[in-house]
Structure formats: C-alpha cells, structure tokens
Amino acid sequence: MRRLSLVFATLAAVTVVAGLTVFALDPGGFSTSSAALVSLGLLLCTVTVATGFLLVRAPWGRWGLCGVTGAAMLLATTNETIAAYGVMALGAASIVGLAGPWVRFWVRQQPVPDGPNTVAVSLVAVAPVAPLVVGLAAYDESHWLHWLAAAIAVGSSFLYARGLPGALWLLRLAVPVSGLAAFIVCPLPSALLIGAGSLAVALLAWLPGATAVTATPSPTLPAPRQPRKARSNADE
C-alpha cells in the first residue's frame, strides 16, 4: 500500500505542476501577478497535503490531495489545448486512485493522541491557503497590498507553527490589519473573500485553543534527593 499511495500522490503532484504550467501559459481572466499568487498558494497547499498524506498518513492529506488536483484541473480549463485535456485525464486518474478503497489501509484511522486541536491546525493552515485566497480575490489585478497581506499571513502562520509566542499576536493583529488594507484596494464582491478570511483568522487567533501551540508546558521536576542520614531516620 505504501508504494501505491506514493504513486497516487506523485500523480497528483504532477497534475498540479502540469495544470499550473498550462494556467501560466494562458491565465484567462487572471492578471499575471494574480496568477502568480494563485500558483504559489496551490503549490504550498500541495506540499502541505502531500506531506500530511505520505508522512503523517492523515485523512485530511488524502482528501487535500484530491482537492488540489481538482483545483489544478479547473485552472487548466482557462487554456483550451491538448495539454489541458491531458491535465484533465491525469487529474481524473489521480483522484480516482486517491479516493479508492485501496488507500484506506494506508491512511491512519485513529486520531493522533495528544495532537493539536482544531483551532491550532486551522491557524497553521493559513500559511498555504492565504496566497491562494488573495490571488483568487484579486484575480483581475493584484495590488502590492495584496502581496503584503499574503506575505504577512504566510509568515505569521509559519512562525506560529514554530511555536513562537509573538506569532499569535501577529495572527490577531497584523493579519486582520493587512487584510483590511487589501480589502480596501480590492473591488467588490471579490473583496469579501479577503475580508471574510482575515476576520476568520483573527477570530480563531483569539480563541483559547489558539494558545496550545505557543504555550510552554511546565516540566516535571524530579524530587530532591534526601541525604542518607535523613533517609535512615525516616526508616526508623
């Protein structure tokens, strides 16, 4: 099952790269800068879910690979060429392989004991998703504030995943502020996507479960050693 899972994951990754290549040749209604943001976000998402599927054997990695493969297939439809149809066929094969029952034996069925909570996982997932969301919202023309908002979101989420205490405040304050600036320069209604995403990150960062990654547990200290004389008196 390990080799089969590796084959399907590789097939999905090849589909994403091929789909983004076709998308770069003809991004359709996307501007060049927005297409770059979307491509960057989809690549980050692919690396994240592929790692979760192959190394952690997590169910979200399996379905995440199906999701990024489907997204690459949709982006490839902007270019009506033979290569685009090839991406469709490749993506369909990878999705069927990943969704099949034979992968169920590879994917872990039970959650990891003492694993991070849903809030912490969601905040860590901001890093790969943020460029994709910003690029889709500013599809017609991306402003430098859009790139700044995406960079702040990615950096804050990455530092949060590393367990740095100050990163949580970046998610609470810097991400919504930069998101508001990107929201202002983005036309409606696509700007609502950036606004909703920034608000969701800020709300999650203020929840109690968000401190699970940055909190430092108190170590269990060993009991002090007693002198030999004190131990003998205690035995008597």
Task: Please tell me about this protein's structure.
With 236 residues, the chain is an all-alpha fold. 69% of the residues lie in helices and 0% in strands. The protein has helices at residues 2-25, 32-54, 59-76, 82-99, 118-124, 126-137, 144-161, 165-184, 191-205, 228-235. The protein has 2 domains: 1-109; 116-214. Helix 1 (2-25) runs antiparallel to helix 4, helix 2 (32-54) runs antiparallel to helix 6 and helix 8 runs antiparallel to helix 9.
Strand content: under 5%
- The backbone outline, from C-alpha atoms, is flat
Q: What is the N-to-C succession of helices and strands?
A: HHHHHHHHHH
Output the structural class.
mainly alpha
Tell me, rounded to a whole number, the average pLDDT. Answer: 83
Write down how many β-strands occur, each being a DSSP E stretch of 2 or more residues: 0
Short descriptors:
236 residues, mainly alpha, flat
Describe the SSE topology.
Layout: H1 2-25, H2 32-54, H3 59-76, H4 82-99, H5 118-124, H6 126-137, H7 144-161, H8 165-184, H9 191-205, H10 228-235
Helix pairs in contact: 1-2, 1-3, 1-4, 2-3, 2-6, 3-4, 6-7, 6-9, 7-8, 8-9
Brief rundown of the structure:
The chain has 236 residues and is mainly α. The chain has 2 domains: 1-109; 116-214.
